[in-house]
Records
---
Amino acid sequence: MTTAQQIVLASRPNGAPKPENFRLESFDLPQADEGEVTIRVLYLSLDPYMRGRMSDAKSYAAPVPIDGVMEGETICEVLKSRHNDFSPGDIVRGRTGWRTMAVLKGDGLRHVETHGAPLTTAVGALGMPGFTAWSGLKFIGQPKEGETVAVAAASGPVGSMVGQLAKLWGARAVGIAGGADKCAYVKDELGFDAVIDHRADDFASRLASACPDGIDVYFENVGGHVWDAVLPLLNKYGRVPVCGLVAHYNGSSTSETDRLPATMSAILRQSLLVRGFIQTEFAPDHFDEFLSDIGPRVASGEIKYREDIVEGFENAPAAFTSMLTGGNFGKLIVKVS
Amino acid sequence: MTTAQQIVLASRPNGAPKPENFRLESFDLPQADEGEVTIRVLYLSLDPYMRGRMSDAKSYAAPVPIDGVMEGETICEVLKSRHNDFSPGDIVRGRTGWRTMAVLKGDGLRHVETHGAPLTTAVGALGMPGFTAWSGLKFIGQPKEGETVAVAAASGPVGSMVGQLAKLWGARAVGIAGGADKCAYVKDELGFDAVIDHRADDFASRLASACPDGIDVYFENVGGHVWDAVLPLLNKYGRVPVCGLVAHYNGSSTSETDRLPATMSAILRQSLLVRGFIQTEFAPDHFDEFLSDIGPRVASGEIKYREDIVEGFENAPAAFTSMLTGGNFGKLIVKVS
């Protein structure tokens, strides 16, 4: 019998999650049935959406039960296969959850294709975050040449792709990030036209100055006070794809006034489009198109990305909780083995 | 020299407008220049959007200046014409503002076409309110057969058309209205599948019961507490055309909590589309299509409408201020002469 490790949800967080909300356990790996594959996890992707799974508040997906294994996507090596599509040594993506090994149905796995870019991009620039940026911008944001696209968490895996795609498609990219290092990266490395530090006291007026023609597309992945600064800048027929609200995940607003009327009034006044989405809406029909469009650009370095790779499976909880307050810099990935 | 009457904005309202915010005046009608038409106003349309024009808060249109004539659309008879397209006796729609007579450029006028329905429908069921309903539902709401469409102010000119179109296009129509009389009209006369009185203490739970399969399209024309009850009922991929927020027009929310996070979370969780619009976005390309589609149905009685016609130009301010709190029943129109 093979023993592996997993991380389960020990308790639901009250506000910001702490490492104590998780528990590291050993478990006995079952034997693979016909159609199943035994895999060893190489990399675990840590993503903001996982915060939602820790809570039993209404969400777009069911919560992880207490004592249940945390959900997550991983890059794995096939050890043994009882499925025709996979052989030992194959590299696959799968939803193993936070585990070091797993036995999964082969039908839920996908061979990793990165067009020559490093394996880890399969959960970053060429995975769910990159595809979230590409599909949300392409199908909802629809930037036209010369328009202004703004995005927060601009040094992160979604935001960095949004801005680079905006530039690629002929628009102006304005990034919002937290701290001088991230801002410098967004401007100097990623080539955004402007970047604003959301921690600055005069953040709202700086953002306005950086968007002299207003904002045509705001790619919403954080919520919170960034939204308040963006709202008055949105142009007529502005589009707002909403893929995440990380500023809200740890609890409700600290505002003592009702901010809804201002938002609804702006939506009416400016004929805005606000559209929530999860990338799974577009993936079945468009993921392959994304990969063949963006894969070679990532492999060649035309599109840049940054990863924050943490060593050691046992460090996943601390890395995850830090990420929720901006403690990482780049796509957060745990190197498991 | 001919003398006519006009109503100007005497002062900006602080909260709910009062008749004292208006002033009735006489003015000397100018002579028509080449290309202009002298017209006599038969009917003045009173509409909620006019509340926005009284305020100097940011809006989608410039405010009426103090001492300026209130804006508005009217149905008029041509008295004298110096424009080739118009002859004395023609019935036209025009933006004269709140006036009994006017001299306007002929290029801004439009012959009234009602397919045999009464003239007044040109500012109601077959005018701006009807077209708002038709275009918002057709291009944004896009109800599919069997889906549930909910609309507030369901006895009003926009809401009544939204529900009837929803039925015509194969969806289920749930109306929200204020008071037993309006509710009975919506259910019994307009043929909505269900109607809920928003003044009921258990309004939210009644609305939920009336929408056992949730809400696929919520046509937003009021805002306020109706939105709070609708929000948890919206289905995945729900659509929310936003054409008005009459509950907000007289001042900001009375909520002491921030309602924005719940709205943004629902948008994300349910992949909602929220889209503000003004009917002028669609009118140039689609008004004729609307008129030929809906005109004959209104004329034949297949699509029903109700008008609240107030006699006497001088009564416009009181009728308008009452409408903003639901005091009218049907499309509010002032019979001027």
Note: Chain B has two domains: 3-116+306-335, 128-279.
---
Amino acid sequence: MSASTRKAASQGRIGDYNQTVILDAVRRSADGVSRVELAAATGLSAQAVTNIVRQLIAAGLITEGRRAPIARGKPRTLLNLNPDGQYAIGVHLDPAVITYVLLDLVGTTLAHARFVTPAHPDPAEVTADSAAQIEELIKVASISRDRIVGVGIAAPGPIDVDRGVIVDPPNLEGWQNVPLRDALRDAVGLPVLLDKDVTAAAAAEKWYGESGDFLFFYLGTGVGVGLVINNEVFRGTSHNSGQIGNIIVDNGIPCPCGYQGCLGEGSQPRMLVHLGIVNGALDHDVDLDDRPQVEAGLVELAERALSGNYPASQVLDTMVRGVLKASEDIALLLDLDHIVFGGPHWTTLAPFFSSGRIAELRRRHSLQSARELTTSGTRIGEDVGAVGAASLVLDHTFSTNPAVLLAG
Amino acid sequence: MSASTRKAASQGRIGDYNQTVILDAVRRSADGVSRVELAAATGLSAQAVTNIVRQLIAAGLITEGRRAPIARGKPRTLLNLNPDGQYAIGVHLDPAVITYVLLDLVGTTLAHARFVTPAHPDPAEVTADSAAQIEELIKVASISRDRIVGVGIAAPGPIDVDRGVIVDPPNLEGWQNVPLRDALRDAVGLPVLLDKDVTAAAAAEKWYGESGDFLFFYLGTGVGVGLVINNEVFRGTSHNSGQIGNIIVDNGIPCPCGYQGCLGEGSQPRMLVHLGIVNGALDHDVDLDDRPQVEAGLVELAERALSGNYPASQVLDTMVRGVLKASEDIALLLDLDHIVFGGPHWTTLAPFFSSGRIAELRRRHSLQSARELTTSGTRIGEDVGAVGAASLVLDHTFSTNPAVLLAG
């Protein structure tokens, strides 16, 4: 690269940087923000703000909205994001369900679809199906394809983020070293990124306004945690942080790892349904090797527990107690004082995170820390993984240094 | 502050900042560094480097050393830190031993002292004793008092770093809400900082050259971990990260917390000695409420195990297995792949971290991660807490943004 090209590229980047700063400031303003406020908030000159705003309006990313009266002088025009300025698609590959969302620039879900993951999901088949579903989503939302920034995939770890490869997930047979990111990119012709499900979920909670540092406890076919530390989504050196399946939580269940009482083994739907059958809470006709049957069995177990079946309650309470014990351990290790629970199974399991169990967690924590522990449920719902994957794509619009790059 | 004062102060800070950058670059050069190399490494102009170096030589912080021949032109003078340019004192308050070190600017320990912590340590008494010991250290090292940057205290958590207060450590009776930092400052008339023992220890390992991210596993009266993440010492929101006493590791020992098999309960010297007595490895004449007797009992237990006493080996092996299980859990949670073991009891316990147990840890880890886990022992030894506390003081010389402020 010649010196002059380099200089031009560098100036280009500075321009992009300031655009990003302005876009992010507009995004963070709940009711719109004026050019004068943007200059004050960003430290850019009034002239620079005016120029950048003009470019962003021309690009369709922001719009002029209502005029806000001020004490003296002429009212100021408030700027807002243009929701239809850009879109992002999120795909969450869970061993039990595959979820798709299409978000606009302000994070509203314009289209959504969810399917049971095939019993023996073949990578090539899943890739082809996903590409077809993404086309369907674009059609349903009737949006302009050239405004789609890209597709984010949230998948169970371990993953290789740099290569976009699913390495060896414990609950997806036959998915060793699958280059899903590039395969999907080739199939849909859009830029694609891949990140870990629990991390994407934590990113989603942060994107939708969860403030401060927190631990996101993901409840799906597997359990895991996403971490927001120092106001940033934490990923670990290889983007594989959040693995907690072998933390011992004293649930009494032998684990193939050799220890007894591991969180993952005792929390998987298959084990919960099995225990429900063994202690008489469920009938004997569930095929434990059939994921959809297991998922339905878990829902039934929860329903029975809610309607007063004691053995069913016991199974779920033991699982919840384990989740809360692991939450306590991680909160104390990392000096975190807020926990968000969510993931595909949160809706089913939430009633069993009783106020009594939460109080017990807080009491135990208070004996070991000078700080108060607080908890909440996801603000996004069951789609949190897919929404998170899409929000990682939108991060490319609002951050000069997105955590996961799109392969385009 | 007037605009001109503000400007002057700001310029002063920029000067300080550049001085810090140069000092740190000199520190990181193993064999000395030339002015030309400093300019290249820091991006400062040759003139700026020359000026700053002149100031730093005048201040006694760096010295001109040998002349390095270069291919053409006159040989370049290499710059080194002046070891006697500044000093820092570290105090490690452990429930069993109190350790003092005096470091010079390159981190060499010039003086060192260690005492058994009194059976019922009174905060006022410990403060007075510490002040006296610090004076003794200064006398023994025969250094100039006005070159001491300050005193760092490493103490068990929970602590209140901002207020310099020891809040409520589990193994120090009567130490609730003790403002140790300011009390010691008033007693010795030097600036003082307070940080958590495990964090100080991790900082020491990093300071002495441990590179990359790692987990420092601290073995003392209590166990805990210090974390270096993204190349920085991790502290958590309230500087109290690293608490792991209630992680369950399946050692079979009931814990007062209500669970069975907690790491902290099964790892404390009191419990190890108790188990040694119960299974016949040790004689019955140890008073478990007497810390020095317990410490001696632990050393004896280790000696017996080393000389082939099976019950003694069993006690220590169960403890080591627990420590390694917790290490595995934390490494997977945080996607870390290096563990450093150390702390006051490391010398005693190291032989029981056998190659077989380490291999088992690595094998278990490899089943859950695509990465290789490595382990090592501390490079600093038993003084790691005190050395860490002193290194946090020296951080004020080499960083514009030290993690813990000195109260002066």
Note: Chain A touches chain B at residues 158, 160, 167-168, 213, 225, 229, 234-250, 257, 259-261, 325, 328-330, 332-337, 364, 367-371 (CB under 8 Å).
---
Amino acid sequence: MATLTHPTRLKTTLFGGARIPTPKSRPGPFRVRMSLQESGPSIAVVGVTGAVGQEFLSVLHDRDFPYRSIKMLASKRSAGQKVSFEGQNYVVEELTRDSFDGVEIALFSAGGSISKEFGPIAVERGTIVVDNSSAFRMQDGVPLVVPEVNPEAMEGIKAGKGKGALIANPNCSTIICLMAATPLHRHSKVKRMVVSTYQAASGAGAAAMRELELQTHEVLEGKPVTCEIFQRQYAFNLFSHNSAVLPNGYNEEEMKLVKETRKIWNDKDVKVTATCIRVPVMRAHAESVNLEFEKPLDEDTARDILKKAPGVVVIDDRSSNNFPTPLEVSNKDDVAVGRIRRDVSQEGNYGLDIFVCGDQIRKGAALNAVQIAEMLL
Amino acid sequence: MATLTHPTRLKTTLFGGARIPTPKSRPGPFRVRMSLQESGPSIAVVGVTGAVGQEFLSVLHDRDFPYRSIKMLASKRSAGQKVSFEGQNYVVEELTRDSFDGVEIALFSAGGSISKEFGPIAVERGTIVVDNSSAFRMQDGVPLVVPEVNPEAMEGIKAGKGKGALIANPNCSTIICLMAATPLHRHSKVKRMVVSTYQAASGAGAAAMRELELQTHEVLEGKPVTCEIFQRQYAFNLFSHNSAVLPNGYNEEEMKLVKETRKIWNDKDVKVTATCIRVPVMRAHAESVNLEFEKPLDEDTARDILKKAPGVVVIDDRSSNNFPTPLEVSNKDDVAVGRIRRDVSQEGNYGLDIFVCGDQIRKGAALNAVQIAEMLL
């Protein structure tokens, strides 16, 4: 039985027969064309051996992100591992208080407790931290940014050139939802959103992806399933998101969607409810989103708005039943939107239903963080 | 590579390591205790070789349904196959115009076109047809029945003893949703429901279940996937429900939820919207349901109401993150409800979010039909 030991093998093994749509070319403001190792900032990747850490490298490469030097940082456990990147070999260094000397931009994805401990240390040394954890997202004064959605939130930091600062990358579900909802919200203010998610294994890290694959082998062979990451069978099953359930009955993942949307949209009044579910899919999330608007927005206008939105691709062919799927957006930058239709449960054109898919590791994490870093160049 | 050729093997292969909750004992009005082959009606099962047809037999047996004789009917292609049931061997007979002579109750699950052709023929011969297809569901004068929800819809047929009649079994998603929503609706009228489904392979039949399993083998082995039932990869993926998309942008499955709810609740005003998605799960559906009520209904009252509801089991343990999963309800009669919480996007106690799981083949199809038949005894 072949088991996977590295998330990059999942890409080839688990996306075998997928139809891969042609990615929309995106010559937008975030595309950096040069890759001069002499001219860019000095950067660091914290948590470089994790699923998102590896994707940071992949995205930095794909986007020709310019850097003068790059540090590969991780926990003591991973220190000493070798990483090859853009023709150079690096040794993963242990993350310490002194790691950030001379580092201008650090991309963090090593979990909330590492961010809480080392984020402020890095800022003190003058580093701008783009943090993928939830540690600082709701903290006043820390911008929570999706570059296509609220680039204006970065202005204070761009003005304070050379100073250290924290910038938070929103939660994957929030990014993917708002990539689709924001262009519509700009046209006809969203009053209320009801979101149900179909979340991939990758959100729980590379080990969860491996567990899903291992369990699937086990189930097909009639063996008992190995449950190390989740407390229940994941293969051929689904379950309520594994984050802690809060006193109000929502889990943390759901409340991120509720609260982060308010902060990103700078709108305390927007009403959001969410039900977050893990499904046996590898690395892209899907979301069913019901929207209530203040002003009418018909489905044709909505489709036109979404077709023009940067970072969004519309897949909405009713006649051939062709709509977004997680597999199609896997390893892709764009968030795909389809099933765009007038909500028959609301009066006139005050409601829409849409279905959104986005790569959790890429736009839901690494790509968005690198886009933020690009805004600092 | 072991491939499955019969859906019953899926039960043991694909539900291997599942936690199986203790089923709630149900000494309700539909429990029939005798199984006297001399005293019951003469019955027929139409489409006996399909996934639901096989489950009809399993449910008839489990519930000691009394019958004087039983006919196993299917298409010409399946005629001649042998079926063993309750210690007797039967040969599957080809369905013809003369199949219903002397048959008092026929359980149909052979697709809409077979129902449309042979349902009226059976009724003419005096047979009461309980039809699992969508052929007659919205037809005036045909009761659309979930026994726990609207038993009163059967009264006309029970009064017309001895006469042939059509009774429609609702769509699986509708049954599972309304099993949970109706007890709440009776307390504080539901004004609007926003439903997102997570639907299993079984809804597309035994061949779809086999395709999901075969594809999963193929993906794990890095081979191209076999797409015969669906036009896209199903393993480690999900997609918008494969039913036809109507001019209003909803697919047929979604409009069943919208329209059948109105008929079953006898409430033309209830607003429903739905997004129906197929997920790589074998035989039980899940549904995320957002409810808006006319009168306040707090979550504790809702939980108490659901705990007392027949055919419903509440699994709602926030501290251990234990909520319903499709695997847990597979091969079970009860519909499981959890994630019961006040909707933070609505004022006061006018909204609730719930998560529902139910076995698509059992309560979503065969069990509900047999329960209807029991009401005729």
Note: Chain A has two domains: 16-169+365-375, 174-361.
---
Amino acid sequence: MKSDDKRSFKNYLVKKDLQLRIVLNSSLYMILIVIVTAMVVLFPLITEMVFSENMEVQYQTAQIFLTLVTWLLPAVIVVILLFIAHHIIVTHRICGPLINFSNTLKKVGEGDLTRKVYLRQGDYLKHECDEINGMIDGLSAILNQISEDQKTLISDLEGLTENIESLDTPDKIRTSLNAIKGEARRVSDSLALFTLEEEAQKAAPPQDRE
Amino acid sequence: MKSDDKRSFKNYLVKKDLQLRIVLNSSLYMILIVIVTAMVVLFPLITEMVFSENMEVQYQTAQIFLTLVTWLLPAVIVVILLFIAHHIIVTHRICGPLINFSNTLKKVGEGDLTRKVYLRQGDYLKHECDEINGMIDGLSAILNQISEDQKTLISDLEGLTENIESLDTPDKIRTSLNAIKGEARRVSDSLALFTLEEEAQKAAPPQDRE
């Protein structure tokens, strides 16, 4: 992701398929506008130029026609280029964050919760960025709790096996085991903060839910 | 999210801030195009109409001017409306999924991994949708493993406390405790599949990390 910060032109097309689709879609509208406008504008001029019975009018109209075409073409081309550049920049502000989000979500799926998402200046999707970082914080909080409880459990189990000689009555054994059980239950309770799909439901197609 | 499926007009503006921002941005370009085109087109006509010394040319040019304005305005208005509708639909295909993603990510952050994301027909962001569902599957797989191991640990601890009388030699206690320790270690090993941020790093500002 670091190379994105350089913002060379290539880096503006970070998600070619979606960006080009939107740019092409919008450019088609642009071209439709240009064609409609050009036809509406030029049709009466051409009619006048070709069919007028007054030579002077024909001449003047032809001059207007030439002026129009000479002025219009460069103006339209400049505006179309601006329009395309504008759309690439706007889609980049959406697609750049999306690439970053995807990479992070992939890492999270692998259990790596150390990678937050971030936005560059001008990026959209601030809300989604916060949402993902909030999710990572939420998962981390639960897992940190489980981890702490599990460490206590393990270290108490270690302590117990080192002092097996002191467990010389069933009562002492019971007390120690109950303490361990209590700690194991705390781990289970924290684990229960996660709601997992039942294996049976997993087989069902996703569109049947929600 | 269910109401989205009805697709009434209101449902096309699911994420007003972002959508209106994009639509307004693009409409500004549209209006720029229209103004530039109109100025370029009408300027020579107006010059001709006002300053021509030939009355006939003045009359004809005025007629062309009127025709242009009468034809141009409705055409431009229709195209602008089409353009805005088009942009609302395109942004809807991005923002609709984003809303769905946000809701799911929020649930995941709360530990609820039962809610997959889905796309409606025509929606963009298929890749991101798959990524989020993949992440949920990945997290679920690790957590299911931990959960299973933890259940075994708890049930073995229960079994042990019920049969404390059988633990009548240090060797038997050692064997039982080692079995429990082995199970607790399996839970720890699965937990270690998660990489969590150290508390110390958490204090650092996020922009220092990648």
Note: The helical segments of chain B are 16-51, 55-109, 126-162, 170-191, 199-202.
